[in-house]
Specification:
Layout: H1 2-7, H2 12-29, E1 39-43, E2 47-50, E3 53-57, H3 70-83, H4 91-95, H5 98-110, E4 115-119, H6 122-133, E5 139-143, H7 148-157, E6 160-164, H8 169-178, E7 185-190, H9 202-212, E8 215-219, H10 234-238, E9 246-250, E10 260-264, H11 266-275, H12 277-280, H13 287-302, H14 305-324, E11 335-341, H15 343-355, E12 358-359, E13 361-363, E14 373-378, H16 385-401
Bound molecules: pyridoxal-5'-phosphate.
Pyridoxal-5'-phosphate binds at residues 121-123, 126, 147, 149, 190, 194, 219, 221-222, 250, 252, 260.
Length: 405
């Protein structure tokens, strides 16, 4: 009763609701709504059952194919047996369990930092990091293609907020020169950009941060398990050590759990443990999540062949698209933007691929520029060569039909 009464109100909330209702309805009626589909089953790491149909998964963040790994599943089950399903509240009060401390020690070791601390999502970890580090008197500089959670953190912090052109170090330097020399500066970037799959120019970034006395934070959501010979991330990729002040990562992509972490010096992490609002006022991640995450970091080190396989698959996947004539921007990783043109081209491309059993999703404006709507195809270590090649022939047929290639 109340919900329908609300709908009748003549205000801006109702107008927004109606806009979305009409947009979704139009998408459904015209076969271009692909979001919020329900996956019923996962088969062998690369196949999913959706609406009674088996499809090849090419939209997963599980880069090393660790979802369902026996050691990780066993760790999560054992944690439930030992601690139960929940915690006793926020981390600072009664919510910290031994498994949280063990996970944070594991992350600090993996990321080669003094300490680490975890939060309930990757999104909230970025908001936390920026809002705890900078305030109104300070300045934050952010790459134009940084993840939305970084942008939200920058805006919420109240700090002066400048965006530099994507991965453009000359533009970053211009921004750094514009800032009052007395201000404290934080520079934030993604290690691997989540929509384009390209890698930040870390060596030049470090040089600039040192030159201008700025702090550097790097979001490794898409680089853990992906970059570096042994999957330890962006520093390993460039052969650098301890050049990043704050390393952020999520526990929801390569690591098949949920949550996020910050890793850095003991003093920096101690500050987060006492003044970061989502640590002080929000519940701890569950024992099963923490145990699964801890076991996942161990598996990455115990099974380095997965990292090598991912790299080989990514190379093959990108080459396949390029050889067909698709524009894949500057990607070098498992995230491959397959540029389609306008939003409707991306929708139609996704529709044709899904009809042929390839589960891949369109990314449209405003998430990406209007003329750069795309499929965001991802490959994992779990895909076989044959699966990739079969999907490639589906992409080819769809691309030719729509005149994209
Ligand atoms: C670069 C980046 N940072 C942070 C996040 C947020 O992580 P989570 O999904 O674990 O909240 C994402 C998620 O897509 C991401 O791509």
């Amino acid at each position: 009763m109340e919900a329908s009464a609300n709908k009748l109100k003549q205000d801006r909330i109702s107008a927004r609701m109606l806009t979305w209702r009409d947009r979704i309805r139009d998408g459904r009626e015209n076969n271009y709504y692909f979001y919020n589909q329900i996956i019923d089953e996962l088969h062998g790491g690369t196949r999913v059952m959706i609406d009674g149909r088996e499809m090849q998964m090419f939209a997963s963040y599980s880069y090393l194919g660790l979802i369902g790994h026996p050691k990780i599943n066993a760790a999560a089950k054992a944690a439930i047996e030992k601690y139960g399903s929940g915690t006793h509240g926020v981390r600072m009060l009664a919510g910290t369990l031994r498994i949280h401390a063990e996970l944070e020690e594991t992350i600090a070791r993996f990321k080669n930092t003094e300490k680490a601390v975890t939060f309930s999502s990757g999104y909230i970890t970025n908001v936390t990091a920026v809002t705890t580090m900078v305030t109104r008197e300070d300045v934050v500089l952010s790459d134009k293609l940084n993840h939305a959670s970084i942008v939200d953190g920058c805006m919420l912090s109240g700090a002066g907020f400048l965006r530099f052109r994507h991965n453009d170090m000359a533009d970053l330097e211009i921004c750094l020169q514009r800032v009052n020399p007395a201000a404290t500066i934080l520079v934030v970037v993604d290690a691997v950009f989540s929509m384009d799959g390209d890698i930040v120019n870390l060596p030049k970034l470090v040089e600039l941060c040192r030159k201008y006395g700025a702090w550097l934070m790097v979001d490794e959501a898409h680089s853990i398990g992906v970059l570096g010979k042994t999957g330890h991330g962006i520093e390993e990729h460039f052969g650098l050590e301890n050049v990043i002040d704050l390393k952020m990562g999520t526990l929801s992509k390569t690591i098949p759990s949920a949550g996020g972490y910050l890793a850095g010096s003991e003093d920096l992490i101690q500050m987060f443990r006492h003044s970061a609002r989502p640590f002080v006022f929000s519940a701890a991640i569950t024992p099963a999540q923490a145990a699964a995450a801890k076991a996942s970091f161990e598996v990455i080190e115990e099974e380095p062949e997965r990292v090598a396989k991912l790299r080989e698959n990514a190379r093959h996947f990108i080459r396949g698209f390029k050889d067909l004539g698709f524009n894949t921007l500057q990607t070098e990783t498992a995230i491959v933007p397959v540029i389609c043109g306008n939003d409707m081209s991306a929708y139609r491309m996704a529709g044709l691929c899904q009809e042929e059993g390839v589960f891949v999703l369109p990314i449209v404006s405003p998430a990406v520029p209007e003329d750069l709507a795309r499929l965001r195809a991802t490959v994992t270590a779990a895909h076989s060569r044959a699966e990739i090649d079969k999907a490639m022939s589906v992409f080819e047929r769809a691309g030719r039909k729509l005149g994209i290639i």
